[in-house]
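User: I want to check something. If I give you two sequences, will you return the structure for each one separately, not as a complex?

Assistant: Yes, each is folded on its own. Here is the first sequence with its structure:
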Amino acid sequence: MYDVPPRPSETRRGIEWLKNFAPGDDEAAQLLLNSLWFISETTFRQELSARLQTVLTDGHVKTPAALFSVQSYGPPGGTMFHEPVTPLVSSSNSMGSELVVQNIIGATHLSLPNSVVSRGATDLAKLRQRRVRSLVFVSDQAGSGRECLEYTRTWLRNKTIRSWRSLRLIKLYLVVFAASTSGLRRLRNSGLYDGIWMVRHGMDFASAQWTEAQRRKVRSLCERYERRVGEGLGWEGSGGLAVFEHTVPNNLPSILRQTKGPSRRPDGWAPLFSNRSAPPDLMRELSGYAPKHDPVQGLRALGQQRLARADEMRPRYRSGVRNLAEVLGHVAGGRRHAEQLARAVSVSVPTAEEIIVQVRAWGLIDAQSRLTDAGWAELRAAKAKPRHVLQQLQGSQEPYYPHSLRESRWP
């Protein structure tokens, strides 16, 4: 049996961090703290590797493909292959995220043939010689989306790459572990990518199962206790909630990352994280922690009141789909794409894709992921009130007096 991680508010560091806040603010602080996702290094590596291999081998991209870890260059505005801007990642000029992703890319190179991925394609001559048809950029997350976009534009500022793309000789793709709601929207609206894939969608303020009143309180808390004005909701206000073992992203609210602030503690602000890293003792306690998903609350927010009431009484399971009624309810509400469904029912995007395939095989949704007649019938059955069948006759203590007697049949 696996140990269930405690809630972050129950850890020693969490308890000390909550003491920063005045009475009346601690409830919102606890809600924010317990809404964090703690992604272990093992989970990150395994799930991002699996997603990357699926993308490369299922015909999603043209091959051979060259893989590159997204990294930031400063000052902005650089051009790829113009010194010192290169796609090489080294320990001397890179953050931990880029190194971990580069390690995953290296393992992918070893596991796939050269006809699928091209190793060491780090200059224009090698890209041309090996007839690379896809540039696949890989990152741990897209919080605001800015870093991924700037990295891609660094490639497109190179006139040769720009020409190859214009002639449709190469395509650009992005694979990330996590993409926030606003980050994914920004990436898609940019028009820079021919395809975007992720493991997790959400893990941010927009996808948290909070009421509007709770959301306002948490936002107010972050802004009132922020150390620097404008940083309360994280980088560009993206309001992230994901914590990785290898890094603490800067799109988390600043009150989770700052080392100083307006604390009510006599000894000053007690930080939760510091120096963009999660303390090892905290990760040991919370590795794998995720906020509990409430399907009833999600259905009520969607306006599916009857289905929510029925779901409270009896969750409906079917062949590996955790809650078929919940899935169909969200599909009926317009959440037909894997990313939308994953965010709504709190599963990974690959799992949501498998659910869609399975439900389609049952004939409950069509090729456009709309409910079929059978799907609507299943949804109506889920909303119906359960029949209460008496298991035995109900007795009575009152005396029984017959109202008539049958005649004897004997002559």
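And separately, the second sequence with its own structure:
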Amino acid sequence: MYWRKSSYSGEDAEHNCVELARAPDAPAILLRESDEPETVLATTPAALRALTRAARAGRFDHLSR
């Protein structure tokens, strides 16, 4: 399986990025944090699209306050 890290992660960010892969036997997207590679979440492409759209729109900004 080939894991891809975020383009926002620099070359020195080996343990500080989100990585994505396509599930080999299902139409799912896998996500993991590079510093905890054994913890993997699975989601659908549609759900991941909805999450990234909501994050870009600032819908989660109030959670950090």
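Because they were folded independently, the notes below concern the second chain alone. The longest strand covers residues 36-43. The chain has a mean pLDDT of 87.
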